[in-house]
Amino acid sequence: MNTSFREAVEEICQKDSRYLPEAYVFLVEALDMTMKTVRKVNPNHGQHVTGKELLEGIRSYALAEFGPMTHAVFSEWGVHTTLDFGAIVFNLIENDRLGKTETDSIEDFRGVFAFEDAFLKPFEPQGKGIRKTGDQEVSG
What we know:
Blueprint: H1 5-15, H2 21-41, H3 51-66, H4 70-77, H5 82-94, H6 115-120, E1 130-133, E2 136-139
Helix pairs in contact: 2-3
């Protein structure tokens, strides 16, 4: 019996409740976007992306979709590190929703980037300038 993706995700979430279903849907959308981007740059790339390539695609797609809310959205979904995305990928692999090569490992997703650097810092105020507060100029 061929179950739908949504049904497969519901089944996965019953076994592993760390992540909300939205995280799985997002990951597959990010994978699709990553494949399109990689193929645009390298038409002969093939059907497979590495964990690092996928994480870079996730970062780009998330910032485009959620902007400064990315960190909060991921946190709500239970996703706090790049390794969490690896766990989601391998949950999908175990349920025959994604494929892998012999060299793919969940460790490919460990510590690739810090969420704070990727999803919070781009939205922090940059530089020190002079701003007016009332009648005084304040540096900083």
